Amino acid sequence: MKKLWVRRVLWSSAIGLCMMGCVFLWADHELNKVLGKSTRVVDFSSFTKSSPLVQIRNVNVLSEDCTHFITNQNLLIKDGRIVQIDANQQVNKDATIIDGTGKYLIPGLVDSHVHVKESKNDLFLYLANGVTYIREMAGRPEILEWRKSIRKSGLGPRMFVASPPIFSEAGLAGYYYSWTRQSVNYSNKKDAEKAIKKIKEQGYDAIKMYGFVNPEMFKITIQIAKENKIPVIGHIPLVDLETFYSSGQNEVAHIEEITVKTIDEFGKSISKNPEEYLRFLKRRSHQIAKKLKENKVSVTSTVWLCESFLAQRFDLKSKLKAIELRYANPKIIEGTPLYKMGWLPGKNGYEYDGKDTPEAKKLSLTFWKTYAEAIHIMTKALVDHHVPVMAGTDANVATAVPGFALHDELESLSQSGMTNSQTIYSATVEPGLWMKSKTGKIKTGYHSDMVLLAQNPLEDIRNTKAIEYVFFNNHVISKTQIKMLLKSIENANNENRNIEIGEYLK
Ligand SMILES: [Zn+2]
């Protein structure tokens, strides 16, 4: 009798463990699936060939301060560097010649906030959109490997790679966040030292601060990062703005991060007091911008994404139809039942899920309208006080399609109070200076990261989309090749879809 009882317990424990193991494996599979790795990677080398010597003739070149075009210029590019710019250059018989007559040459664009995840085709979407440099804001070892191989082959954009995000949870919660958020977690100084040393050794360019880090671990992170000579960038952790300004974190990943702090400061419901909040913000935003400037803190924009929340919440289908959905990795947009991080209806965490009463919906609508307006007010204050603003998209967050999203962002910035010249500066010179890289300007000795446009972007910022050629490393890709490349990425995506998207396409 006793034996039977023991056997029963053993069997049920074994079955229980087995089930737990299966759930864990399934969850792990789901978490990895949404990184987009399973989508076939297109053969990018078949769309571009290396051109060690290129001459662009008779072109309008954007001035280094982005204020005007210098007419009738000739450029000689050798092994991916600009070696000569002048008005009277002989035709170089050994070079690939590109006629720039009537066209506009701007520096390659930089998207200062992206998430490539494991979706390698995204790298080519950036180049197809004239984005020759990306700042990956939640790096992974795979991305460091991709960067290494691009440095050899030239077949991809330049990359600045921040570490996985930092969390400061103790105990089991720490393990949970490391697993589900692919984060780095520590809750004491010794572990922080170990983790930051490892981040540095792995080759990451910065430490990505995250919003839930407690004040003590924030302070310790900055101190250890300083000793290891690695910058801290990203979200504003659990400290107020006064503590943050002089903390030593020299970049904020979203204008939104600063704006959200002002909602905390306001202390009342902004859905119920929208006008009062916006009046408060109009004053407060100038004080904040002044302090950021004094403390040499740069800010990455992601304005377009904040504007999109309202539409994603209440009219998702129209929003999806307005973007280039076909090129986004299908596994990323389809998401997982584990959490609503996908893009499509039913999968999208921004969709309205509150009470189904007219009052509740109205309050939510007021909140998100006010939120978008607040982002514009804050952006304008940053611009007025000359805080360095870098254009960034948060690409691969719902509805931000890698590469394409940067052009949307430029349009949003130009509508938020930046001149077209300042807008282009925020996606070229500013990030180039921030990264201390010879990119972002058309200048002798600089990398030949450039985009040739059919129309003048200073007249209309939407002209950054009128791409004729993209120059990167020692490669050139033409409009026709870009078209073929995009088709090929679309085909690879279609092969890997579980949910048809026909009804959401343009
Ligand atoms: Zn992000």
Outline the structure in words.
It is a single chain. The chain has a domain at 109-137 and 253-439. α5 crosses α6 and α10 (303-314) crosses α11. It has helices at residues 2-33, 121-128, 141-153, 171-180, 189-202, 215-227, 241-245, 255-266, 274-294, 303-314, 316-322, 330-334, 358-384, 404-415, 420-426, 429-434, 479-495, and strands spanning 49-50, 53-62, 69-78, 81-86, 96-99, 104-107, 109-114, 131-136, 158-167, 184-185, 206-209, 232-234, 251-252, 298-300, 389-390, 450-453, 467-472, 475-478. The model has no long low-confidence stretch (mean pLDDT 95). The N and C termini lie far apart (70 Å). The protein is globular. The longest helix is centred in the N-terminal third of the chain and has 32 residues, at 2-33. It has 506 residues and is α/β, with parallel strands linked by helices. The strands form 2 sheets. Strands 1, 2, 3, 4, 5, 6, 16, 17 and 18 form a 9-stranded mixed sheet that branches. Strands 7, 8, 9, 10, 11, 12, 13, 14 and 15 form a 9-stranded parallel sheet that branches. The protein has 17 helices and 18 strands. α4 (171-180) links the parallel β9 (158-167) and β10 (184-185). Zinc ion binds at residues 113, 115, 137, 394.
